[in-house]
Each structure stands twice: as structure tokens, then as C-alpha cells.
Give the backbone structure.
Amino acid sequence: MNKLKQAWRNNWVGYLFLSPWLIGVLTLSAIPMLASLYLSFTSYDMFTPPKFIGLDNYATMFQDAKWRDSLRVTSMYVFLGVPLQLIFALAIALFLNRGISGLKFYRAIYYVPSLFGGSVAIALLWRQLFGSKGLVNSFLTTLGFETKNWIASPDTALYTLIVLMIWQFGSPMVIFLAGLKQVPIELYEASKIDGASKWKQFSRVTLPLITPVVFFNLVMQIIGAFQAFTSAYIISGGSGGPLNSTLFYTLYLYQKGFTHFQMGYASAMAWFLLLFIACATAILFITSKKWVYYQE
Amino acid sequence: MKKDTVYEVRTYSSTSISKLSKKLLKHVLIVTIGLGMLYPLLWLFSSSFKPNTEIFQSNSFFPQTFTLDNYKQGWSGLSGVTFGKFFANSFFIVAMCIIGNVIACSMAAFAFARLKFALRKMWFAIMLITMMLPFHVTIIPQYIIFNSLELVNTYVPLILPKFLAVESFFIFLIVQFIRSIPGELDEAVKIDGCGPFKLYIYLIMPLALPALVTTTIFTFIWTWNDFFGQLLYISEINLYTVALGLRMFLDAMGQNSWGALFAMSILSLVPLFAIFIFFQRYLIEGIATGGLKG
């Protein structure tokens, strides 16, 4: 009894301050996670009680052509879009990094698209830009190129979304700039004296020293990109079309769970996504030992 | 910063004409790329002042006939609900989310950074894990819970999670900041007979103000830009937010009212732009140090 009292005296303040978060983690994260794991083994439409069906949802999923489309589209978006975005961000950051006046101004300008990019307004704008009468086409016409409806063609629709992601390169660029600032100037001077070319300077000095930042950006952007939703929803009008070419995984999950009310199936999809992201992140972490260089 | 200037001076001392023109070329290139990137936004802005017939007909950037009709027509909204209502709703949600995040996240952060209690490390690790968790694995049961409590079509599902510190990025951000506050200050306050509550309110919170400002700004941006949550929980037009209002506009109006849609899109970006103008330093620092996504 005394021990309990002692434990209470030592801990209650800490747990009091932690209590909102603790309640949140339990009721909005832990319990829902377990619940969705359970639901993923059931057939559930919200109106009749869940019916246990074992691994059926998962089996159906692998047979579902639309599901496979959504996984393919999302993987393309993530594994093509993120590297392109980061290369662009790094290139501009390198460009801005050394001895340029007005750095703060340029940095701010380049950051603006990141700030707006996630909004419905920008998705609407994109839909117009790449539409048949859009800005991109009128530009191409002036240059004498052929035009097409980029949003309505299955073979280009996804690329408009990737361009939208690249357009928002500002926030990784800001992180790159912060990382580049940490690279000691002496190293550049030293390599200059040794007669290293610009490219050698980049590949032997700069790049190795900023690999931690590259790694950080890669992990964050990949996790974020897997969860993209708004742009695809607005641009395809919620359908993921044409021909599933913009059917992001999250969009299909939304359709299954909240328009068809196949909550069990949607839960199975969510757990697959969790495992998929976890694997991708784990692979990154494991390979990082080979290419990420930490000072000290 | 100082180092940079020294570096520049050095390059100038060995300046030749070709070096100077190289520098100029660099600036021209940067400005061109920047303009290219911002061009769609500028075009959106300029088009919002053009009559509908002009938007897609003429190739000129500036409106040939300047009109505010798009704004008038857009603002009047749909089905008797004006855009003013949508803005009021969005601002209300944003304000509540900010209050929730600042209070709940700073409390948790204070506990993690300054208080001793059992299992602290374990909880901290769990907090870090929840930062990486895709929200999809919780969204379906959450929806079922809120639905069974008859809270769908209220703002509770959008606001309550913030009061329960679900956005743990901010906890992490504030923890990092509090850890940089020297512990001797705590000791001094404790000697004066202050308990943990006074320590939290009178010492740590004021000193952690920059982190709280960053939390406020990013809560604003994320909540303002949120679409998924609002789409999920809100279907009554009276409760619509700006994001939902825009989507409804798009569905209802079709091709002939792009002008009104553009005008409202521009208005929806104004609050974000204001934040950008006034809190740029916090924004950039928040991203550079905390890795917060803009």
C-alpha cells in the first residue's frame, strides 16, 4: 500500500501533463489500430455487425485489378516523383547556396508553391492548367507543338500529378539549404587548392556531407507521398480516372470505405499500406548504413 | 553568415568581367525559374479579374476588361450559403485546432522534457512511432466511433483530436525546444518554491514561445489545407469549409464559371499568403530545424 502511495506521489504530475496525449493515443490511435486490424478480417458495412471471414479480404485484394492499379499508380507517383522532386530541390539549393545576394528573397519565392500546394485551390488550378484549353496547351500552341488534354489522357494524367509534386520542391530545398550551410567552407578551399573540379567538389565533398539531409528528406517525402489524396481527388473529380490512371491508393481506400461502405476491405487495404510503407522505410534505413555518412 | 561575406569579398577582389557576368547570369537564371514557377499563380490571380469569356479566349496576361464580377458571383456562394459562411467555418475550425494543439502538445512536451515519471522513455518512443504512422490505419475505426456518437456533421471529429495531441510532430518540436532551455533556470525557480505547474506556466511556456508560434503557424496551414478529414466528416452545406466550398463549386458550376471559381481560389489562398508574409522566419526555421512539411 505504501509502495503504491509512493509511486503515485512520484508519478502523478508527469502523468497529469501527459494525460491529453495518453487519452489521445489510446482512444484515437491504439484502439482504432487494433480495431482496424480486426475489421480487416471481417466483412463490415457499418449497418450490420461485422462478420469474420479470415483472410478473405486480403485474398480478394490481390485478385482485385483496380487495387493493383492503385498500388502501381501510387508506387509510380512515390518512386518517380520523390527522387525527381529531391533532385530538383538539391540542384536549386546548391545554386542558391554559395555567395549569392538576395538568398533570403529567392528562398522565400521558391518556397511559396510548397505552402499553397496542398490546397484544393491549387488542385483546381492544376486541373485547368493541364486541361484541353489550359495554359500549358496555349503555351505549346504558341511554340507550334501539338496539344492534348493532359488530364483526360490515361497515359499523361499521372504525370500532371507528379509535376505538381515537383512544383512543391520548396520545403525539401529549405532543408537542403540548412544542411549545406553546415558544410565547412575550409573543405571547399582545401579541395580547390588540390585542383578539384566543380563536379569532384560536389561528389566528393558536398554530397557525402549532406547525405544525412538527403536521407531525412527521402524518408519524409516518401511517407508523405504515399498518403497524398487531395490532388488526385480534385483533378479526377473523385474517380481516380481516366482508366484508374490517377487512382491513388488513398483514393481507392476512400472509395471502398466511405462510398461503398466496405469497411473490412478498406481496413485490410490500410494495413497493407502500413506494411508497405514500413517495408519501404526499413529498406531505406538498412541501406542508409551504406551511403549515409555521419560526422563524428 | 559572417563566413559567407568574407568569402564574397575574396571573390570580388579577384573579379574579372567574365566572373561578374557569370554572377549576373546566375541571377537571371534564378529569377527566370522563379517566375516560371510562380506564373500559374500569377495567371490565376490575373484571370480572376477577367470576364469568363476572356479567360480562355485571349492570350494576354493582363485583363483587357477588368471586372470584379467573379468575386461578387463567387462570394454569393451556392444554395443560399455564401462563401463568407465557409470562411467563418474554416476560421473557427482553425482557431480551435490551434488552441488544442498548443495546449495539449505543450503539456505533453513539458512532461517529456522536464518531468520524471515511470515509463517515460517508453511513451516517448511510442510518440515517435505515431509520428510516422499513416493515418489510414486509424481513420476507419475513428469514423465508426464518431458516427456511433452521432458526431458526424459536427466539427468535433476535426477538433477533438488536436486537444488530445494527436499531431505528435508538434510534441517533438516543442520537446526539442524545451531541452535547449538551460536547466539552471528551473532550479532557480524551484528554489523560489514554485511547483511544476508554475514552472510550466511562468517559465517554460514563455521561453518556448518560438516553438509555440511555429506550432500555431503549421496548425493553421495544415488545418486550412486539410481536405480529407473535412470531406469525410462534413456533408451539410451550412458546415462547409472553404476547401469543401471550392470542391462543391467545381462540381456545380461547370465550364462557364471558371472566373468565380478562380476568384474564390485566390481568396482561399489569402490567409496562407498572409501567414507567409508575417511569419516567414518561423516558417522557414520550422522547416529547416523541425523538418515540418509546408
Observations:
- Chain B is about 75% helix and 0% strand.
- The two ends of chain B are 25 Å apart (CA to CA).
- The domain at 75-290 of chain B is CATH 1.10.3720.10 (MetI-like fold).
